[in-house]
Write a structure and sequence with these properties.
It is built from 2 helices and 6 strands; from the N terminus they run ββββαββα. With 113 residues, the protein is α+β, with helices and mostly antiparallel strands. Strands 4-3-2-1-5-6 form a 6-stranded antiparallel sheet, with helices on one face. A hairpin with an 8-residue loop joins β1 and β2. 24% of the residues are buried. The mean pLDDT is 91.
């Protein structure tokens, strides 16, 4: 039996940056905890593979759809923008400051550290 995707997310650099700077990351999280990250930096695209803890995986699985549905639009003009998709729910590209989606984003970002 193959892995099932439980979440896709994209993190975009909407801050002031040049062509050679980091542009975005695309995350794919599977039901076994595997996390694939595609990094777009300047003209270079790389793929990295990580694994998140069972506790973090369970947290994402139990909360992502509710967090997506309850996230409000956020009015900001600089920083990072995100989009999330899980099951039949979607958070369109925008800011997540102050929402529970920041917790999910933190899990994804910290997996790379």
């Amino acid at each position: 039996m193959g892995r099932k995707i439980i979440l896709t997310a994209a993190q975009h650099n909407w801050g002031l940056h040049s062509f050679d700077d980091w542009q975005k990351n695309f995350y794919i999280l599977y039901d076994n905890g595997d996390l694939r990250v595609v990094v777009y930096e300047g003209t270079v695209i790389t793929e990295e593979n990580y694994c998140i803890s069972d506790d973090n995986l369970r947290y994402v699985q139990e909360n992502i759809e509710h967090f997506i549905m309850s996230a409000d639009e956020n009015d900001a003009c600089d920083g990072e923008a995100w989009e999330f998709e899980s099951g039949g729910t979607r958070f369109d590209l925008g800011y997540i400051y102050g929402s529970d989606l920041e917790k999910i984003a933190g899990i994804l970002v910290k997996a790379r550290i």
